[in-house]
Amino acid sequence: MVGKLLLHVLPGLVLALEIAATAAASAPRSGFRIDFGSCNNVNLSQPLWPLIVERAPDAWVWGGDNIYADWRPRTGEAFLKVLKEDQELVKKYFPQPPWYGATPEILATLYKRQLEMPGYQDLLRTVGAENVHGIWDDHDYGINDGGSEYEHREASQEAFLKFMGVPQDDPRWTRAGIYADVDLADGRVKLILLDNRYHRDEYSASGDMLGEEQWTWLEKTLTETKADFNVLVSGIQVLPRMFLRSTKGENWERMPKSRARLMKLLTESSAQGVFFLSGDVHMAELMSANLTCGDNARFVVPEMTSSGMTHSWKTYPRLMTWAMQCAHRILPWQETMDYYLDLNFGELDFDENFSQVTMRIFDVRGDIRIERTWRADELKPAAGFQACEEVGFRGPPPAKTIELGFVALWFAATLTPVLAFFAVAGMLLYFLMKLCCGAQTSSKPKQA
Q1: Which region holds residue 244: left if phi is over 0, alpha if psi is between -120 and 50, else beta?
Q2: What are phi and psi for residue 194, nearest 5 degrees?
Q3: Which CATH number is associated with domain 28-406?
Q4: Is the pLDDT assigned to residue 312 strictly greater than 80?
Q5: CA angle 71-98-102, nearest 5°?
Q6: Distant-in-sequence, close-in-space partners of 9: CB < 8 Å, separation ≥ 6
Q7: pTM value?
Q8: Residue of higher predicted confidence among 445 and 260
Q9: Is the dihedral angle over the CA atoms 142, 148, 154, 157 positive or is it negative?
Q10: Cross-referenced SUPFAM superfamilies, in alphabetical order (predicted)?
Q11: Where are the alpha helices (DSSP H) in 197-298?
Q12: DSSP 3-state assignment of 64?
């Protein structure tokens, strides 16, 4: 009798518990949650969407490289053709293979494929298409490391705005560039979406990252904002200082005049709770810099990078991963507080009073890899504050000789597999030739 009773009661009890758990997971929170990520290739597996949906964010923010629309030669024959016919392109991207820009047709096709991804469809149903925001970086803009020279930038902007579902009355449809500010959580949080592609000059010490029209808009936005938190989203990292000026990597430091102008705007504006989100680098990173003047004045600016939704440093050949590990352990960037090299997505959790924000990085298993809470009053300058210098979390930068030593180590690590391949191939060829020659000699008839 008891067994039959349990047989009838248990299934209903299990179902009730499942419903309760689902309701608890989807119940409204007292604060506000934003999840974000970047570097997402439609031709690769996209394993993070179920984990993002499980976090039930109130909004999703694309951090750039939302698709990969540009391309480069994949065969030896194609690469040799480029070497012969387009020396300027080879010189521009050396030592990497050259890149070719996407056509409007390629952009439209890849955006359509991303929209149709089942995991992304689940996210759109969870947060609502109107709560998806974002920016582009180079590969979804249309060309690797691209700027104002990209010939299809107008068509690219149209394709991007359609993908994001931007309403037709939004000013982004009528101006040059995708920059925008978006109020979330009833105005308690403001997203400030920067466009570091459409108007960007060629990289130089005096080059401009944003263009004057965007600078004017940004100054006005930072001056007038009343939000508790102001989140500036950039496709490339803002805080890191470069290894050597000749590096091909992208960040704001490659345009020091623009970077200085940006940091000056932050310190002179009335904006509170200021920090950066960024992508591009195929890893996650938490950084901070102190803008200081004297012994007492200090303004902390954090940056959270989430990059690598479908590919990352951990998915590259092992020696490249090892070299990046060495970079962070032996010669870490001065701004770096923590980092993670595998697939990841980021999260911002604002408390119910919007007095603090918790930044998190999740891995492909849904485990937290980086976590840090910042109070809003930590992230605003005092009235009249003027920054005299900027000091990274780890202190002043290392000597150039140390940087040169690391670069030598880096090239040694990345070139080792290539050199090893040719060495082994050469040895095999030598022994094969020796074996063949020996066989031919032994087969000759002896003279009487």
Answers
A1: left
A2: -90, 145
A3: 3.60.21.70
A4: yes
A5: 30
A6: none
A7: 0.82
A8: 260
A9: positive
A10: Metallo-dependent phosphatases (SSF56300)
A11: 212-224, 256-268
A12: coil
- Residue 19, pLDDT score: 37
Name the helix (H) or strand (E) containing 401: helix 400-443
Residues 117-134: tens digit of each pLDDT? 999 999 999 999 999 999
Q: Can you give the residue ranges of every domain in the chain?
A: 28-406
* CA-based nearest residue to 158, from 134, 133, 144, 175: 175
Q: Report the distance separating Cα 348 and Cα 32, nearest Å.
A: 8
User: Both tokens of residue 434?
Assistant: 């020796």
Angle between helices 118-127 and 104-115 (to 10 degrees): 70
Reduced to 3 states (helix: H, G, I; strand: E, B; else coil), residue 84 is: helix
Q: How many CB atoms lie within 10 A of CB 247?
A: 13
Give the whole-angstrom CA distance, residue 160 versus residue 195: 12
Structure tokens at 327: 């970079």
Helix or strand or coil: residue 42? Answer: coil
What's the token pair of residue 141? 């803009």
How far is it, in rounded angstroms, from Cα 134 to Cα 359? 18
* Nearest Cα to Cα of residue 59 among 107, 124, 15, 118: 124
